User: What shape does this take?
Amino acid sequence: MKVTLLVENNSLFCVYLNSEHGFSAWVEDEDKKILFDCGYSDNFIKNAEALQIDLREADYVVLSHCHRDHSGGLKYLMKYYRDNAMFHRPVLLAASEEIFTKRWNFAKNHNSGLTLSRKELEEYFDVKIQETPFWITNSLCFMGLCERTNDFEHVHPQRAKRLVNGIWCDDVVDEDTQLCYRHKNYKDVSVIAACAHYGICNIMEYAKKITGCQHIHTYLGGSHLRIDEVPQSQLDQTCKYVKGQKITQFYICHDTDLHCKQALWNCTPSKEAGSGLQIELK
Assistant: This one.
């Protein structure tokens, strides 16, 4: 499997690609190509063109969750398809109908969720809601809705509220999902995440359960650890878990503040992530 970070909060040194507060990755395994999230703007498209990646070849577009730093680029992707004679309809995979639930950040007074309706998406995609794990290839799995195995992650609501039956409610982003990859040795599993709203410990444990593997080889993605939103105790427990996993490669990136990145870097062998990163897993 090959993973290319199309856009991320930072850009790798001297690659001259765009970065933004967003996430998008291009994943290739066997004969399948997957666009995982679309960032906030059209920067992921510009970077894909610079990397000579043809987004029209996507078999699947996976939407990890509704937030605009992951879904905002969808409207630009649809325009790109329209302007560049898209020749087939990718499957748009999401883990829950909640991606269509309205979200609003009242502190900043802006829409934080998906701005496109199902009807608009169905003009370009075959929309598929899949709550349970779905194997895209023999080794690559769409994880669906994550299981919770601890009591310290996926607890604290986001700043944005969600609209439920006319009432604005707290939101822990239950629809969040990831990809996992079972290595050829059937012992290692790697995780490609975006925001990781369920928490990286829950996600890695669920990846092991889905695949039957015992060891995390690579983690690439965010952690949703920001010290202004979660208590220090959650960071401490996460670091304890990560240290015990003896992860081979750890790329912590999007939606992780510097304080939390430093803590995680100190407890596991970490590598730099950013727009333009390419990794291959076997």
